[in-house]
Amino acid sequence: MQTHSNRIFLTLGCLLSLVAIGCSETPVGELAVDLSDTDSEVRYTAVKKLEDHGPAAYEAVAELGAALSDPNPKIRYRSAKTLSKMDRGASDVIEEVAAALKKADDKTRYYLVKTLANVEERAVIALDDLQNILQKDPDPRIRYYAAKTLGRIGKQARSAAPALKAAMKDRDEKTRNAAEDALTKVTAP
């Protein structure tokens, strides 16, 4: 009969074993390795499975960041979607997210901006792009997340105040409300 302390010891031993053999021995680690495969179908399957892990896919965050520049648009899209589910965990690949934003299609851009909203003040790296998106993007959901992100950046996004003021007249109510809230945050004393 196992005692409670024996079970804890065995569990701890199993965890230490996983650390010792490396992360590629975990399901997420194996999927992360698959993101570097030469076969785009293997990469797509891996990123789709990682998406199902949500924030638990953090172990593969570097590989997901690299996949934002994959030649296959489906892989770029799924990588952005997966990163958007990681909350602040995606801040480790903020440079890759910001770079991908510049050339992303509409569907991918939505998840990239959503990812930026999750990393809060670290999104300042994409400040100019976020202002441009807020002013010109045809998708109200993307404009909404751009405004929300600017607010989460806070005072470092003070230069976005004119764009936020203009967005308070946006045809989309959620965008207007997010812009008003963000303006309060970026202009706070």
Can you offer a commentary on this structure?
The protein is mainly α and 189 residues long. Helix content is 66%, strand content 0%. It contains 11 helices and no strands. Mean pLDDT is 89; it is low at 1-23.
Mean pLDDT, to the nearest integer, reads 89
* Helix share, percent: 55-70%
N-C termini distance: 64 Å
Secondary-structure-based class equals mainly alpha
Number of helices: 11
Summarize the structure.
By secondary structure, this protein is mainly α.
Supply database-style keywords.
189 residues, disordered N terminus, mainly alpha
Question: What is this structure's SSE topology?
Answer:
Elements: H1 4-21, H2 27-34, H3 40-53, H4 61-67, H5 73-84, H6 94-101, H7 106-118, H8 127-136, H9 140-153, H10 161-167, H11 173-186
